[in-house]
Every structure is written in structure tokens, then in C-alpha cells.
Design goal:
Blueprint (H helix, E strand, L loop, with lengths): L9 H15 L3 H17 L6 H24 L11 H13 L4 H24 L3 H39 L1 H13 L6 H8 L6 E9 L8 H16 L5 E6 L2 E6 L20 E5 L3 E2 H20 L7 E3 H11 L2 H12 L7 H12 L4 H8 L3 H14 L8 H14 L1
Parallel strand pairs: 4-6
Antiparallel strand pairs: 1-3, 1-4, 1-5, 2-3
Helix pairs in contact: 1-3, 1-5, 1-6, 2-3, 2-5, 3-4, 3-5, 4-6, 5-6, 10-11, 11-16, 12-16, 13-16, 14-15
């Protein structure tokens, strides 16, 4: 929450007005080039951004800076009402339609950085009196940061409106076109590609994003959009097809054969809490488009049944589980035959054995991952062996599958 607005005297207000006039006198090209230089660094670190988006953001930021300066010419050192310019609205719509609206946050940070540097330089040109500079810079910092924060709020409101429009219009049309493809409804491929804005030739990797129940709500679209951006970056693509079958679930198709590492997105997941990702096997052409999605949705169903659903689940992680989980009685029989009395052991013992298998039966690595003493791990492994019909070392694959089935059973 914003603190109390600084109170300044008439001299500081006059300096503020002169600085605003100086800012307004700068050509549009200079303001745009200043923000462009900052935003180019962001674009270089993200494969999802192209030069058109960066250029549009530069123009929008220049318009916002002029809006702030013009208001301070008439009412210097007062709070400026934030209104999105036409350029900013167009940029917001473009970002939403590409699933890149989280870029707006970085764009505003860049705008604030540029505005502050430009303004501070101008303040030092206006006066060298410390008694004037201190209150001038103080109220300037509050004014710029408050204006940028208000613009962010307006942008988020525009993002939600555009998402609603997509749901009512073109997004619903894309969903209908995708459902026809998935159900094998005959029709010209070229027409489906025009409706989707996505080529059906070449490689495809289908992804399902969804939010867990406790995180579902009004902010679901924002965190799902952030996760979709992260997935595209991790896959190294700039384009993808996004379809929203519900508020809490998004379907993605990436034009690449992507087989992510299990830890590929773990670090970024703090930016989109509660989102889970299921990845299908890559495929080619229309059949690959369809099969990869079937794999991804099957993976989602299995991952969603786990008591500790991971952030990222690949089809290869659960393919064998899917074959067994389809017959609950046989799955239960397999678990009992493989684990014996260890099936009723504690969750901590089950997790220890999973970690041991995940670290390729390396006891020292397991102890490090669990922050436990190596001898403690050895004792628990010996106890697990004693409770099973056969030693773990003789049935490593079977034990791993049985432990995963226990996770599904919860």
C-alpha cells in the first residue's frame, strides 16, 4: 500500500513542472529508443518475444511517459491518474492472444527504470541545491512508482477483459476446431490450420496445464499464462497453439519434438504456484497432433491422482502405470506380490525407497537428498528387504512401479 504522499513547497513544484516540460520536449523517437534499449535485454533472454512486440512495448512506454509528464505540467508533484493509451491497449491484446501477457510486467519495470534515470538526470540539471534536490527526488520517486503501479493495475484489468473476449469468440472457435481434429471428424487440413492459426504438419508436442483445486479461482488465467510462457521458453519455441477448455485447464501444442527433463521447470514454478504440467509423447502430422494430446490428457489424469502430484509429469513417467492402473484389482495384486508387508509401511519409508531408486540405488546420494545419515538409510533398506518377498535388488523395476501405484492409490 502506498505511504503518505510527500508534501513539497512551491519551489519544488515549480522545479517539477520545469522537469515535466523538458520531458515533453523530447522527441517520441528518443523516448521509444530508450525503452527499446532496456526491453531488448528482456527479449534476448526469452525466446517467446520477437522484435515486433519489443517495438510495440517501446511505443506504448513512450506514450505512458508523455502522459505522466503532461499531467505534471498542469499539476506538478501530484498523483497522476493512469489511463492506458491506445498503443498500450493494442499491445495488451496482442500479448494476450499470444499467451505472453506476463511480459507486460517486465515492460513496466523497464519503463520505470528508464523514466527514473531520465528524470533524475533532468533534476540535477535544474538545481544543485541539496535542500531542493532532496524533496524533489523524494516526491519524484513516489510519483513515478505510483503511476507505474496504477498502470499495471489497469493493464491487468484489460488483460482479463481480453481473455473474456477470447473465451466468447475466437478461443471458443479454436476449441471447436480442435475437438473436431481430436475426434477424427473428416475435413480439409488447410481449413483447420486457418481456423487454428497453427500448422498441422511437422512435429507436435502436446501439453496440458491445470491448476489444483485450492489454487483455482479468478487468478487462474494469470498463473496459467505464466506457466505457458515458461513451457514455451523451456521448449525453445516462439509460437504455440493455446486452447482453453476451462478456466482451470489449458491445452498447448508446441511445434517441436520436446522431451523435457524432470527438473526443467521446477525453479520457475514459484512464479505460477499451484499449476501442474503434463507432457505427451511427440508426434508428427495430424495423427501426431491427436496422439500427443491423448497421451498428455492420460498423463494428467494419472498425475492428478497422486497424493503429491509433481510440477511436471511426462508420459514416459507414467506410461507403465497407466497400463496397470486401468485394472485396479490386478494393480493391487501386483503391489502386494511385489512389496509384501512393505506395502503397509510408513509414507516416509516408501519415500526413502523411491528416492533411493531415483538416485540409481546410491545410498550416499539418497542420504544427502533426504538429509539423513547414511547408516540410517542402510538400516531402512535392510528393513524393507526383510518385509518384501524378494530383495529390492532383485526386482528394482517392479518395486519402482509398485511404489508409484501406491502413490496413485494414496
Amino acid at each position: 500500500m502506498m505511504g503518505e504522499w510527500p508534501v513539497v513547497d512551491d519551489r519544488v513544484k515549480e522545479l517539477f513542472r520545469l522537469g515535466a516540460e523538458f520531458a515533453l520536449a523530447q522527441p517520441n523517437e528518443l523516448l521509444a529508443s530508450m525503452t527499446d534499449a532496456t526491453l531488448s535485454g528482456i527479449a534476448a533472454s526469452s525466446v517467446s518475444l520477437d522484435r515486433d512486440l519489443v517495438a510495440a512495448a517501446s511505443v506504448a512506454n513512450a506514450a505512458n511517459l508523455r502522459q505522466w509528464a503532461a499531467a505534471n505540467v498542469h499539476r506538478p508533484a501530484e498523483r497522476v491518474r493512469a489511463e492506458l493509451s491506445d498503443d498500450a491497449l493494442l499491445l495488451t491484446r496482442d500479448l494476450v492472444r499470444r499467451g505472453l501477457e506476463t511480459f507486460a510486467v517486465d515492460a513496466f519495470r523497464a519503463a520505470q527504470s528508464v523514466a527514473w534515470r531520465m528524470w533524475m538526470f533532468g533534476c540535477f540539471q535544474l538545481t544543485s541545491d541539496v535542500r531542493e534536490l532532496h524533496p524533489l527526488l523524494d516526491v519524484s520517486s513516489v510519483s513515478i512508482s505510483t503511476f507505474i503501479g496504477d498502470l499495471q493495475k489497469e493493464t491487468l484489468r484489460a488483460v482479463e477483459e481480453e481473455r473474456d473476449a477470447l473465451t466468447r469468440g475466437s478461443d471458443a472457435e479454436r476449441l471447436a476446431a480442435v475437438v473436431q481434429l481430436l475426434e477424427g471428424v473428416p475435413g480439409p487440413r488447410e481449413r483447420a490450420e486457418r481456423r487454428l492459426g497453427h500448422s498441422l504438419l511437422g512435429p507436435h508436442t502436446a501439453v496440458v496445464l491445470w491448476t489444483e483445486q485450492e489454487h483455482a479461482g479468478a487468478g487462474s488465467a494469470t498463473v496459467l499464462a505464466a506457466a505457458a510462457d515458461a513451457v514455451a521458453r523451456a521448449a525453445g519455441v516462439t509460437r504455440r497453439l493455446v486452447v482453453r477448455p476451462s478456466a482451470a485447464t489449458w491445452w498447448l501444442w508446441l511445434p517441436t519434438a520436446w522431451s523435457p527433463h524432470a527438473s526443467a521447470l521446477d525453479l520457475a514454478s514459484a512464479d505460477w504456484p499451484g499449476v501442474r504440467i503434463a507432457v505427451g509423447r511427440p508426434g508428427k502430422g495430424v495423427d501426431g497432433f491427436r496422439r500427443s494430446h491423448v497421451d498428455a490428457t492420460a498423463t494428467q489424469r494419472l498425475a492428478g491422482r497422486m497424493v503429491d502430484c509433481p510440477v511436471l509429469t511426462r508420459h514416459t513417467d507414467v506410461h507403465l502405470l497407466g497400463l496397470l492402473a486401468g485394472d485396479p484389482d490386478r494393480a493391487q495384486e501386483f503391489v502386494r506380490a511385489t512389496l509384501g508387508r512393505f506395502a503397509d509401511a510408513s509414507d516416509e519409508d516408501h519415500e526413502m525407497l523411491r528416492v533411493w531408486l531415483r538416485h540409481q540405488c546410491n545410498t550416499s546420494a539418497t542420504a544427502g537428498a533426504l538429509f539423513a545419515h547414511r547408516n540410517s538409510v542402510l538400516r531402512r533398506l535392510a528393513r524393507a528387504d526383510a518385509m518384501m518377498p524378494r530383495p529390492v535388488a532383485e526386482q528394482v523395476v517392479e518395486v519402482g512401479v509398485a511404489l508409484q501405484l501406491l502413490r496413485l492409490r494414496g
